[in-house]
Amino acid sequence: MSAHTAAPGAGPGTGAPGATAADPRRWLILAVVAAAQLMVVLDLTVMNLALPSAQHALKFTTTDRQWVVTAYALSFGSLLLFSGRLADLIGRKTTFLTGLVGFAAASAVGGASDSFSMLVTARASQGLFGALLAPSALSLLATTFKDPKERAKAFGVYGAVAAAGGGLGLLLGGALTTYLSWRWCMYINLVFAAIAIVGGVLLVGRQQRTPGGRLDVPGVVAVSGGMFCLVYGLSNAASHTWRTPSAWGFLTAGVALLIVFAVWQSRAAQPLLPPRVVLDRNRAGAYLTVLISGAATFGVFLFLVYYMQVTLGYSAITSGLAMLPMVALSGTMATVGNTKLMPRVGPKPMVIAGMLLNAAAMVWLTRIDAHSGYASALLGPLMVTGAGMGLIFGMVAATGTFGVAPHDAGVASASINTGQQLGGSIGTALLNTIAASATTGYLADHLHGRPTPQLLQLAAVHSYTTVFWWCAGIFATGAVVCGALLRRGPLTRPVDIPVRQPSQHAVAVRS
């Protein structure tokens, strides 16, 4: 592998700034990519608030309800790396537009569902096309912006969307469910998709393909099967127990398949995930950061909403509005972090500071009780969490795609999304289990006769605070581990460029 040094923040496959003419439509392309990314991020949370209404309308059981979420997670998580490499092989514009059209169609079917099976099929299809769309969108951004300063601004906007999208999803889901219908939590995707499709067709030019590239079929089978088993096993652990064969059996199979995948990638002629992408310390640190933060952030988005709605009696729209300070600060800090901090200090201090801020916010949240006020107990931690999440997400997209050659941009982008999806699945299983155990333990210690509503409420609050303590520990661990992995200073690592094989004509001349 040969390399040349890139300037701080330089785009993939670029040398000095200005080496390649800037695309005059690049800022409009950023708006298109941001709209597509917002749609994907919103969909991860917007349906959570619509599930009770959908369950009532379609009359499916609480046990079946998890499959509305799991069906999406299974197809999305298992196909990300495959889709990222596919974008590199056949062109990012093609996969980007295909993902948008497919995601919109699946959303329309989901909104019109008249049965549980129809809704679950639509959600699985959303995950499939979302897996095609997400890495294509990020890799388009990584290959469009070449100038370091412009690249920082672009990734700042992308990071703001990624950081704030989950909170906006809660707000939008609450508003749509309260004032319209749960079906609009699916139909709203058509608006974002239409904007992005028109913009993609008109603005995005023909994208470079990997010349002579082939799809690593054994790698696709191993990693897709491994991710499917992991997500499915974790979903079963969250809804049942870790001792269930459908949990530990699939988890064991998933780990085994991923080990096979890792070994195969070091031997394959054209690997699905080239080792050069993940062996760089900064990129590996970014992927690990998004996995760890994804697992712990789940505690904020789920259990804090449970606390506000179940314990404090907030409506769906009120709990969404309560998240606005976090949304605003996360978006602001992501932009500021990428444009002001990253060029000066690099990703390492941003990750450490972001993780520690989130850990402090989680410790602060452990002070809640059954009658806490919003201003006194929730506003401060939410603002601190927003700042921490902004710093983290502001650096992940830029660092995770930094220095990769254009033909690896898709799979590098997919690695970020894979880390986030796997982290969320781990967080779901782990924190749900911890919450259930904390509730059971509290009732066993305090129960005398039949449980009263007050005791049940106290047990629920105890489970939430226990989860927040665990989230604090996860964030603190992330600060140490990810901080140690990331290099000091701004991003100035070499760009990955494959060694060019001599042509047959050149070989003949030499011989």
From TrEMBL:
GO molecular function term, any single one: transmembrane transporter activity
Residues spanning the membrane: 27-47, 67-87, 94-112, 124-143, 155-180, 186-205, 217-235, 247-264, 285-308, 314-337, 349-366, 378-405, 426-444, 464-486
The UniProt record lists the keyword Cell membrane: yes
Keyword NAD (UniProt): no
Chief location of this protein within or outside the cell: membrane
Pfam families per record: MFS_1 (PF07690)
Membrane topology recorded in Swiss-Prot or TrEMBL: Multi-pass membrane protein
SUPFAM superfamilies the record matches: MFS general substrate transporter
Keywords per UniProt: Cell membrane, Membrane, Transmembrane, Transmembrane helix, Transport
Residue ranges occupied by any Major facilitator superfamily (MFS) profile domain in the UniProt entry: 29-490
GO cellular component: plasma membrane
Subcellular localization(s) per the UniProt record: Cell membrane
Name assigned to this protein: MFS transporter
Species whose genome carries this gene: Rugosimonospora africana
